[in-house]
Write a structure and sequence with these properties.
The chain is mostly helical and about 900 residues long. The chain contains 49 helices and seven strands.
Length: about 900
């Protein structure tokens, strides 16, 4: 190899490194990346590595996991040694299991496990050429795994074309640029392989090649041989033409000289993505077309023989591209038809080739594409499904089928956050003189809602479409009607006003059995759990029992229902496994909703730092994809989280942005959250009057505003604000209203805060104690630490006033510790102040304790127990002076000034031990 000394040194160090790592080789087409991959393969083989090669194929860039399958196939024999869960992950992706496909992250972790297992027997080197053509899912998995190879015996090298964007551009993997050869090196390469060229021809080759090794090697025989009648003068006409086009022309000349039979064979191989380059390795199992009787092409340098499989492979990816480019449309269709027969057992590949071979409408082909789209959705490939449904619509024989398939494609495009494409698909189905189709109404209303937050006109539009379908006598289950119904329910949820919900409920009643059972669950959960929530908890759990078989949009709808009845925590692990896949390759809008749900559950269970990260991710995605509704939805939850943490300035800034956008549009769902933010922020500051005014803006005391989802959720806020502002009667009336409405039977959170509100407002200490005992009985399984800590704080204050300071210490200590763990700074300060009022110094915060070294913590514990410096030194084999020095450093870390304060600072008082 000429002119690659630096690259070879880098690759040698890479192979000889003691730790696993990844590296990308990036350069223009023909610059020598494949040669460098061959070089690193030889180095690794000499060092005892097992070398596995794969190549990206442009024809398969839309097939989920096609690239990943290439380099994992030789390792599949190790799968049986993995645990059952990991095997199940591979079964879904590679063995046709009907289970729900894994997320990119779950699959990447499984891949890392497989690679580590295989490398435990022999170090591995994975090589991927033309990585820019890897399908999105495979590239994401490779990027994830490549960043986590440290400490393993696995090395990973990926060749990428610099002129084609790829998923690896943002993978943050180490990169080795492969530039064109310098002028001296280019001359040396040319003179070594093509000595004796005429000076003029030599100059032309050097000028045209511009340091590209492949061009330097390929151009001289073509130009000097006068192929296709071209000489030196004609070659000068290539100046200014991009290099890939020039090289395709060189290959094209040789391809045209082949017999028709061989050209057809090469075309079938090219269209099916046969590998390019020696040693690329065949996957096995007949997954790619196998070219035969192509010795003529190998003789003229278009094909090589793969040394591992013995099959023909293209010498370079440009050969493959040129073969396709030079073929006539009829030749390409014939090749696709032949390939469709080859792949009868692979629904997605069979449908792809079948569609490409068809010109006129053909219902059989359209139905096959529709089935392939269903398969892709189950694997998380919503984008591929959309493309196949669009093609199926083009091939439909009947207008009704065409409209239905375009509607399905537009529906998926909307959920993939491709709103403009969804609009184009719908408009392509509008014929002159025809009214809007129901599918077009779904898309138009979807765009109006999620892009602009238009709940008013979108609701009218959807209701009119449903009424029209009802009047036209729709019979039996209808997918479009179901989409309209579910969209209407989503619009009503965002509107959150009584009139909208009452009209929607009446319309659904008129449809009778045409409304699917799941839609009835959405209706009751999303509308008003106070009046319609009884039994919804059980219905949601039954519906979610079939999670792996649900489409992503149904998963999110049921997830929203689970949130409203406070059982989301049971299903969050599935959402977390699914969200990355949907965001990357599937239903983006559903992925955004999943992020909302994940954030809400993280807030609920006290994982506030993680909730902040999730919320920011959701906001970034919504902003990028121009989902204004989801963007403000994310801001609303971020504002609520900031208010809970006591970050009131940030909370009010976000609250103002949400309210200013949502209130003029009538998006009551968000304005209610904005009011809840105001309530929570005021409570955090101890401004109970402002908190009360915000709370009664959501619902009046003593009742629950119909169809206001925050009415029941802010029960504890209103009661607490009323108690602290001297409105004891209002507080008690509201707590009793919650009990009479049956809120404890609707959800575990509503049970917890109802009993807490009753404990706060009870006139008799006995009733307060009984209600508080119910709260504590729920606390172990309920998992609502913020609400629980607030109830404990209120009850501790009551005990301090009624039973004395000592009796309150245990409850107040638990409240203070909970607030500290949560990061609710303002609430924590209030709890510590109450502890101080009970005559007990607040225990040191975990942050203070974490600042102590192990030795300092041990010395502090012994000193707090009453031991002298000398006694401590004898136990720890230290001098008394060393002990004294340690204590001198401990005091400021704990915020104390004397030895006497150690016990309280460490939370080890005798009163604490008795408690």
């Amino acid at each position: 190899m000429i002119g690659r000394e630096s690259e070879r040194e880098t690759l040698s160090a890479f192979v000889n490194s003691s730790s696993g790592q990844a590296l990308t080789l990036r350069g223009e087409t023909g610059v020598g990346k494949t040669a460098l991959l061959d070089h690193v393969a030889r180095l690794a083989a000499r060092e005892g590595h097992r070398v596995i090669r794969a190549a990206g194929v442009e024809a398969e860039s839309d097939l989920p996991f096609a690239g990943l399958h290439q380099f994992l196939y030789p390792l599949l024999s190790h799968i049986d040694r993995l645990d059952e869960a990991t095997r199940a992950t591979f079964d879904v992706v590679f063995r046709g299991s009907e289970d729900k496909p894994p997320s990119v992250m779950a699959l990447a972790i499984a891949v890392l496990d497989l690679l580590s297992l295989a490398a435990s027997q022999q170090p591995l080197l994975l090589l991927v050429d033309d990585g820019q053509w890897l399908d999105t899912s495979s590239a994401e998995v490779c990027g994830f795994a490549g960043r986590r190879l440290a400490g393993s015996s696995v090395k990973f090298v990926i060749g990428l074309r610099s002129d084609i964007p790829s998923r690896f551009d943002t993978a943050a993997l180490p990169e080795l640029q492969v530039p064109p050869l310098s002028e001296p090196d280019a001359q040396q390469l040319l003179d070594t392989y093509h000595p004796g060229l005429e000076p003029q021809l030599r100059r032309v080759v050097l000028d045209e090649a511009q340091g590209n090794p492949l061009a330097l090697l390929e151009l001289p025989p073509f130009l000097s041989g006068g192929r296709a009648g071209r000489g030196t003068e004609e070659s000068s006409g290539y100046r200014g033409v991009p290099l890939p086009r020039r090289l395709q022309h060189v290959y094209g000349t040789r391809i045209k000289d082949l017999s028709a039979t061989v050209r057809a064979e090469l075309l079938r191989g090219a269209l099916d993505g046969v590998e390019a380059g020696k040693g690329s390795g065949r996957i096995g199992g007949g997954t790619r077309y196998r070219m035969t009787d192509a010795d003529e092409a190998a003789f003229v340098g278009l094909l090589d023989i793969d040394p591992l499989s013995g099959d023909f492979v293209f010498r370079h990816p440009l050969v493959r591209s040129t073969v396709v480019q030079l073929a006539t449309p009829n030749e390409r269709r014939a090749a696709h038809a032949a390939l469709a027969q080859v792949h009868q057992d692979d629904i997605e590949r069979h449908a792809t080739h079948l569609a490409a071979s068809t010109v006129d409408p053909d219902e059989r082909v359209a139905a096959t594409l529709e089935a392939a789209a269903d398969s892709a959705i189950r694997r998380g490939g919503a984008l591929a499904a959309m493309a196949w449904l669009t093609r199926a619509a083009e091939l439909s024989e009947h207008r009704e089928d065409r409209s239905r398939r375009l509607g399905d494609a537009a529906f998926i495009a909307g959920h993939a956050a491709l709103l403009e494409q969804a609009q184009r698909l719908v408009h392509s189905d509008v014929a002159p003189g025809r009214n809007e189709s129901p599918s077009s109404v779904v898309t138009a209303a979807y765009l109006a809602l999620y892009q602009d937050g238009d709940v008013r006109s979108s609701r009218r539009q959807v209701m009119a479409a449903i009424e029209t379908m009802r009047a036209n006598g729709v019979e039996g289950p209808d997918e479009i009607l179901t989409r309209l119904v579910n969209l209407l329910l989503a619009i009503c949820q965002y509107a959150s006003d009584q009139t909208s919900w009452q009209e929607a409920r009446e319309l659904l009643r008129s449809l009778g059995d045409l409304v699917p059972p799941r839609s009835l669950v959405y209706r009751d959960a999303w509308s008003d759990v106070v009046r319609h929530g009884t039994g919804v908890h059980e219905q949601v759990e039954r519906a979610l029992a079939g999670l792996p078989n649900l489409e992503p949009w149904d998963v999110t709808r049921l997830g929203v229902a689970a949130y409203h009845v406070d059982v989301l925590n049971h299903y969050r692990p599935y959402l977390q496994r699914t969200v990355d896949r949907e965001v990357e390759t599937g239903a983006m809008s559903s992925g955004m909703t999943m992020l909302h749900l994940i954030m809400l559950d993280q807030m609920t269970v006290g994982e506030w730092d993680a909730a902040e990260r999730t919320g920011r991710r959701g906001l970034e995605l919504a902003t990028t994809h121009q989902h204004a509704l989801f963007a403000h939805h994310s801001r609303a939850y971020l504002a609520l989280l900031a208010a809970m943490r006591g970050e009131t300035d940030r909370a009010r800034e976000l609250q103002a942005a949400v309210d200013a956008w949502a209130r003029p549009r009538g998006v009551g769902f968000l304005t209610q959250i904005a009011d809840a933010v105001g309530t929570t922020a005021a409570l955090s500051e101890g401004d109970y009057e402002t908190a009360y005014l915000y709370a009664i803006g959501i619902t009046p005391p003593g009742s629950f505003e119909p169809y206001a989802h925050q009415a029941s959720r802010t029960l504890l806020d209103l009661v607490e604000a009323a108690v602290h502002t001297g409105r004891a009667e209002h507080a008690r009336r509201h707590a009793l209203a919650a009990q009479e409405a049956g809120l404890p039977g609707i959800s575990p959170r509503l049970a917890l805060i109802t009993y807490g509100a009753l404990a706060m407002t009870a006139a008799e200490d006995k009733e307060a104690a009984e209600m508080y005992e119910r709260v504590e009985a729920l606390s172990a399984e309920a998992g609502f630490p913020f609400e629980l800590a607030r109830i404990r704080l209120a009850h501790g204050i009551r005990i301090r006033h009624s039973q004395g300071p000592k009796a309150a210490r245990q409850v107040l200590t638990r409240a203070a510790e909970s607030f500290e763990r949560l990061g609710a700074a303002a609430w924590g300060r209030r709890a510590r102040a109450e502890l101080g009022a009970s005559g007990m110094s607040a225990p040191a915060s975990s942050a203070h304790l974490a600042s102590l070294t192990w030795q300092e913590h041990r010395i502090a514990d012994l000193a707090a127990s009453g031991l002298t410096n000398k006694e401590i030194g004898e136990r720890m084999h230290l001098s008394p002076r060393t002990v004294s020095s340690h204590l001198y450093r401990v005091f400021p870390k704990l915020g104390i000034a004397s030895r006497a304060a150690l016990r309280d600072a460490l939370g080890t008082t005798s009163a604490d031990r008795e408690a």
